[in-house]
Amino acid sequence: MKKISLFLTLFLLVLPAQAQNNTDKIGAWYMYFYNAKFKNSQFGIQGDVQYRNWNTLGDLEQLLVRSGLTYKPNNTDVTLTLGVAHITTGVIGESNQTTSETRIYQEALLPLKVGKRLYFNHRFRYEQRFVENQDFRSRFRYNLFLNIPLNKTTLSKNAVYIALYNEIFINGEKNIGDGRTVTVFDRNRFYTGVGYGLTDKLRLQMGFMNQSTENAGKDQIQLSLHHTF
Fold first, then answer.
1. Phi, psi angle pair for 215, to nearest 5°
2. pLDDT > 60? residue 22
3. Of 46, 15, 16, nearest to 33 (Cα)?
4. What pTM does this model have?
């Protein structure tokens, strides 16, 4: 009970750090991530399901379903992924209008442990995007993750930890069809949160993410479940 109380206290401490801007525009993302390795194999699967809202619940921003085949070369900690995603994007407000997108993506994940408690992950992702009513698009993404367990040295059962990440998105093309253009810089996401190890293979995280483009910024509550089979 004391560990759960510490988890909730840390969550409340990171809230004002992320929610000081755009408080009238706070949305919410509810996410499930999974990762599994095939027995006696270098291959596996990974993916996620994300239900994103313009508000805390009910006004669909995006529904994202993504999954990929992973491969881990011998004698390395690198994980390579080839996958596909489908995204349904809604319109803010009462409109039920949506657009759809299919993505193919390639990814490299490079973990790095520094000392006893600093767990870094570098993720490089390249996406080929097929967006409804747009020309073919591509995008480059780089994400730096950092997890810091507080009461243990591993992200295991009953571990309380700080979770941080920053991800930058770069568009591969500026022209998207019918005379429309986008900037080279697409967006940046910065996240702070806390996590708790429900079991050795199941972790819960809560936090805030600020997403910024050249013209706007938006804060998001994030609640996520991370599952390793």
1. -115, -15
2. no
3. 46
4. 0.89
Give the type of residue at 116. K
What secondary structure does DSSP assign to the chain, as a single string? -HHHHHHHHHHHHHHHHHSSS-GGG-EEEEEEEEEEE-TTSSEEEEEEEEEEESSSSSSEEEEEEEEEEEE--TT---EEEEEEEEEEEE-SSS---EEEEEEEEEEEEEEEEETTTEEEEEEEEEEEEEETTS--EEEEEEEEEEEEESSSSSS-TT-EEEEEEEEEEEES-SEEETTEE--SEEEEEEEEEEEEEEETTEEEEEEEEEEE-SS-EEEEEEEEEEEE-
State the pLDDT confidence band at 143, using cuts at 50, 70 and 90: very high
Tens of pLDDT, residue by residue over 78-106, are 999 999 999 999 998 888 899 999 999 99
Question: Beta partners for 199?
Answer: 202
56 touches 27 (CB < 8 A): yes
Cα distance between residue 120 and residue 77, in whole Å: 12
- Residue 25: phi and psi, rounded to 5, are -125, 20
Look up residue 151 and give its two tokens.
Answer: 């009461």
